[in-house]
């Protein structure tokens, strides 16, 4: 009996320790962020009354379609995310759990992260402008482009900004809308040579696009697998690798012809 009693005590102590560790784990902050669909914005339109794209030095045209950039939103870098938050997000297709370092690769304080995002946005703006003007055969010394959009940072809107600049100035090359009047969304970085790069968070961005009325989604081809995994109903997926490819795809959409697929 004494041995059984001692064993019971040991088991009780072990159980209490395990319970305490689980309780600590449940309430301890985790190095992750909860990410979900964010805002979208038609780059051919305005933000708080100010045109998102302003072009000076050449005539601009009135557009009727939409080129909608998409974003994700994440818990703040200084916010505490616990096991219960992760558990809840696990069962929602509108949320994803990602390592905090992947969401905020620049690290540091909120101020430092915002500064890094604005720097990335400025570089994206310059690349988008260069790619668009090169595509249209215009000189940067004659044309001045300004991009204004609050609460958006990073480089992932590069492709949509480039297409927006082209649509504002040249349209489809014949005076018509580049979009054919459709609501087209997309994501992807771009460099001055017109190469489209991957971004991340595509499934959540697709949800944001469809929520706000888009029927076509331009996606970097390298992200086709993620893009197909949970594609919202009513959203057509069009993969691209270059600006030329994106323009060709839009031309095919206007002509109701076959477009590239994943």
From TrEMBL:
InterPro entries to which the protein is assigned, alphabetical: Lon_proteolytic, Ribosomal_Su5_D2-typ_SF, Ribsml_uS5_D2-typ_fold_subgr, TAT_signal
Superkingdom assignment: Bacteria
Residues of the Lon proteolytic domain: 143-246
Pfam family, one: Lon_C
Gene3D superfamilies for this protein: 3.30.230.10
Protein name: Lon proteolytic domain-containing protein
Naturally occurring in which organism (per UniProt): Actinacidiphila acidipaludis
Upper taxonomic lineage: Bacteria, Bacillati, Actinomycetota, Actinomycetes, Kitasatosporales
């Amino acid at each position: 009996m004494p041995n059984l009693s001692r064993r019971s005590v040991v088991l009780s102590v072990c159980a209490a320790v395990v319970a305490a560790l689980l309780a600590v784990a449940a309430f301890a902050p985790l190095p992750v962020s909860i990410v979900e669909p964010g805002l979208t914005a038609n780059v051919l339109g305005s933000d708080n009354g100010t045109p998102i794209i302003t072009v000076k030095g050449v005539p601009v045209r009135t557009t009727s379609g939409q080129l909608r950039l998409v974003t994700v939103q994440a818990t703040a870098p200084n916010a505490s995310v616990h096991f219960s938050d992760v558990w809840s997000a696990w069962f929602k297709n509108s949320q994803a759990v990602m390592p905090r370092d992947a969401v905020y690769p620049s690290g540091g304080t909120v101020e430092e992260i915002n500064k890094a995002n604005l720097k990335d946005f400025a570089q994206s703006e310059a690349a988008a402008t260069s790619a668009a003007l090169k595509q249209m055969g215009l000189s940067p010394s004659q044309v001045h482009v300004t991009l204004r959009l609050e609460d958006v940072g990073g480089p992932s809107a590069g492709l949509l900004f480039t297409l927006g600049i082209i649509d504002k100035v040249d349209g489809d090359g014949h005076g018509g809308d580049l979009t054919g009047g459709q609501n087209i969304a997309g994501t992807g970085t771009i460099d001055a040579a017109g190469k489209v790069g991957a971004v991340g968070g595509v499934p959540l961005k697709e949800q944001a696009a469809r929520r706000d009325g888009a029927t076509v989604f331009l996606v970097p081809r390298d992200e086709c697998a993620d893009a197909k995994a949970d594609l919202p109903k009513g959203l057509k997926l069009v993969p691209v690798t270059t600006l030329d490819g994106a323009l060709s795809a839009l031309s095919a959409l206007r002509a109701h012809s076959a477009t590239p697929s994943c």
